[in-house]
Amino acid sequence: AASGPHLPVGCAEPYSSMAAAGAAASLVQYVVLRGDLVRAPLSWPLGAVVAQGCHAALAAVHAHRQHPDTRAYLELGGAMRTVVLEAPDEAALTELAETLKQHSIDHEVWTEQPDNMTTCLALRPYPKEQVHQHLKKLKLLK
């Protein structure tokens, strides 16, 4: 077993000290986009919606870049796991953000400027079992 710094409770072990298969399945970054952005009347182009998800994911990773789970996730390179979910509209996204805040789940809300429109949120990378309960009602973005 590799020896390293003691991690706070709730943090994943560094991947260098875990079996690769179990480790890769453990950490995930959840991104939640508003589904109504692509539908009328908003009808955003697909690329613009994808950009919102990218902005939110990067903001969450940057804001929590010193967290051991974020660092371990980034070390995965091409094996990083990201799940993109859909909130039906801005109200649902705002409600989710409040729930995450109440449960001390680290996340970043992306607000597109200059429109000042909340479009997306992303959690920092987490072990799936720590956050899945707050996201299980949402569907995969299609």
Write the H/E string, N to C. Answer: HEHHEHEEEHE
Shape: globular
First-to-last CA distance: 42 Å
Superfamily (CATH H level) name:
Bit1
Quote the CATH topology. Bit1
> What is the CATH domain class?
Alpha Beta
Q: Which blocks of ≥5 consecutive residues have pLDDT under 50?
A: 1-7, 13-21
| Counted beta strands | 6
CATH architecture: 3-Layer(aba) Sandwich
| Alpha-beta classification | alpha+beta
Topology (SSEs and partners):
Blueprint (H helix, E strand, L loop, with lengths): L19 H7 E8 L11 H18 L4 H8 L6 E6 L2 H13 L4 E6 L4 E7 L2 E2 H8 L3 E2 L2
Parallel strand pairs: 1-2
Antiparallel strand pairs: 1-4, 1-5, 2-6, 3-4
Keywords summarizing the entry:
alpha+beta, 5 helices, single chain, 22% strand, globular, disordered N terminus, Bit1, EC 3.1.1.29, PTH2, 142 residues
Describe the structure.
This protein has 142 residues and is an alpha+beta fold. Helix content is 38%, strand content 22%. The chain has a single domain (27-140), classed as Bit1 (3-Layer(aba) Sandwich). The N and C termini lie far apart (42 Å). Mean pLDDT is 87; it is low at 1-7 and 13-21. It comes from Semnornis frantzii.
In summary, what is this structure?
The protein has 142 residues and is of the alpha+beta class.
